[in-house]
Amino acid sequence: MKHILIIEDDEQIQNFLHSILVDMNQNFYIHISPSAGQALKISNTYDISLFIIDIQLTDYKGTDLANELRDLQKYKYTPMIFATAIATEELRAYREIKCYDYLVKPFTKEEVKTSVLNVLDYLHTIKIDVPTVRIEQKGFIFEYQLQDIVYIESFGKKMVIHMKNPDGDLIQEDIAGYSLKSILDLLKNGPFQQCHKSYIINTDFIERIVKAKSTLSLRGTSISLPIGNKYRDVIMGTD
């Protein structure tokens, strides 16, 4: 299922875009955000396949939001369609942000459908390499996308991988036969850091670090993880 995020503060346009996507009868999960702040939270929770962004948001410029999204590794190449009534913003969007297309307000239903269908064709024909880690278990090889792994927990000779599923929910898988150090070696090309003798975290998910308590919280989780003295300086540098 593809997740589409509409970022638009005009409720009438929100409803218009939503109805068009529903009428297309595709396998979409549609999110709507009226603000940049909420849009970032949704983007961090789900894997968005297409952004439709109003350039002039009430709380933020849509182009500034797009730049923030582009700074996230998983959205470096994700298609973006801009909705704009300002002609001067169009060229900047193409050159600097690499948006896929733009819709000039007031746009029609057919214009929206054509633009979205073009994005779907693009997604079907291009394959973006997503970094993965391969882990062997009892003669089978399991492959996990690095961007989905939130943290890894050690229980002696058993490890638990906590990761997001396509709907953004946190799930876990048990693995055996690896030490935390050997797992960290496998993850060396990703944004991972050991924060404690029992934990490896994906630093892209750090939501808050409480220095006084030597703990951190990760986006999408409800627990606080400890920061060991050995790892304190490195972890504090990611704040």
Descriptive report:
- The protein has two domains: 2-125, Rossmann fold (3-Layer(aba) Sandwich), CATH 3.40.50.2300; 132-236, OB fold (Dihydrolipoamide Acetyltransferase, E2P) (Beta Barrel).
- Strand 14 and strand 15 form a beta hairpin.
- Helix 1 (11-23) packs across helix 5.
- By secondary structure, the chain is an alpha/beta fold.
- Helix content is 30%, strand content 34%.
- A five-stranded parallel sheet has the order 2-1-3-4-5, sandwiched between helices.
- The longest helix is centred in the middle third of the chain and has 17 residues, at 109-125.
- It contains seven helices and 15 strands.
- Residues 3-120 form the Response regulatory domain.
- It holds the Pfam family LytTR.
- InterPro entries: Bact_response_regulator, CheY-like_superfamily, LytTR_DNA-bd_dom, Sig_transdc_resp-reg_receiver.
- The modification 4-aspartylphosphate is found at residue 54.
- Keywords: Phosphoprotein.
Helix content: 25-40%
Main β-sheet, spatial strand arrangement:
2-1-3-4-5
Q: Radius of gyration, rounded?
A: 20 Å
Characterize the main sheet.
5 strands, parallel
Total number of helical segments?
A: 7
Categorize the overall geometry. elongated
The tally of beta strands, per DSSP, is 15
Write down the CATH class of the largest domain: Alpha Beta
The N- to C-terminal Cα distance equals 33 Å
Q: Would you tell me the structural class of the helices and strands?
A: alpha/beta
Poorly predicted parts: none
Using the coordinates shown, work out and report the CATH topology of the largest domain.
Rossmann fold
Strand content: 25-35%
- Number of structurally distinct domains: 2
